[in-house]
Amino acid sequence: MTQQPTRVLVVDDESYLADLVATALRYEGFATATAATSAEAVRQVAAFAPDLIVLDVMLPDGSGIDTCAKLRQAGHETPVVFLTARDATEDKIVGLTAGGDDYVTKPFSLQELVVRVRAVLRRTKPVGTSSRVAFADLEIDDDAYTVHRHGRAIELTPTEFKLLRYLAVNAGKVLTKKQLLDHVWNYDFGGSDAVVQTYISYLRRKVDVFDPPLIHTIPRVGYVMRRSES
């Protein structure tokens, strides 16, 4: 079975920014939810049970820093990455003292935010939890950056690794070529379907030399990772 996706709650009253961040994180394999206010964020923490919160400091019904402090006082230890337009050292100290785990200043790149999110998750990951994604006899280790099938190591390029991981995290789900382009080659990449086909063929030569094949083509739609064609 595949590893359940890590859940991230994005809290920002600028809906376009919240949606943009949530979309970027979904392309990276996270499950996401959004909130626009402090009160909504508290409700979402209870309902969505996020593994990490991306929290804007300025909210219409209060401070994100106060929200974080309230969550900590209520016993929630969910890691928090603050978003803020203020980069003064004293502001960062206040945020981190309130229980934040990192501090990202606006404007920021989506790639930087994703890297920060992953770094915080690695630092705060409970002892004994796994960084692996597994499907059938395929094992992908994010921390070690390794891939094994049938117990044998498979050498992949960074792009091949990212493509394979995305297929594995979404095993059983048909992914379109556009989804794969957006995820693996970033959001503004102007590539063609041929790029996806080429890298799928690379993966098949390395991963599907074993039986049963795991990467399947859905004609005129895209690709899916599953144990058989049925």
Number of strands: 14
Structural class: alpha/beta
Give unreliable regions as ranges. none
Helical content stands at 40-55%
- Rg measurement, Å: 19 Å
CATH homologous superfamily placement of the largest domain: Response regulator
- Overall mean confidence score, pLDDT: 84
| String of helices and strands | EHEHEEEHEHEHEEEEHEHHEE
> How are the strands of the largest sheet arranged?
2-1-3-6-7
Per CATH, the class of the largest domain reads Alpha Beta
CATH topology of the largest domain: Rossmann fold
Largest sheet: number of strands, sense, barrel closure: 5 strands, parallel
Beta-strand content estimate: 15-25%
So how many helices? 8
CATH architecture of the largest domain: 3-Layer(aba) Sandwich
Shape: elongated
Distance between the termini: 17 Å
Tally of individual domains:
2
Domain OmpR/PhoB-type: 130-227
Protein name: Two-component system OmpR family response regulator
GO molecular function, one term: phosphorelay response regulator activity
Pfam family, one: Response_reg
Concise synopsis of the structure shown:
The protein has 230 residues and is α/β, with parallel strands linked by helices.
Features:
230 residues, alpha/beta, Rossmann fold, Arc Repressor Mutant, subunit A, 5-stranded parallel beta sheet, 4-stranded antiparallel beta sheet, 14 strands, WH-like_DNA-bd_sf, transcription cis-regulatory region binding
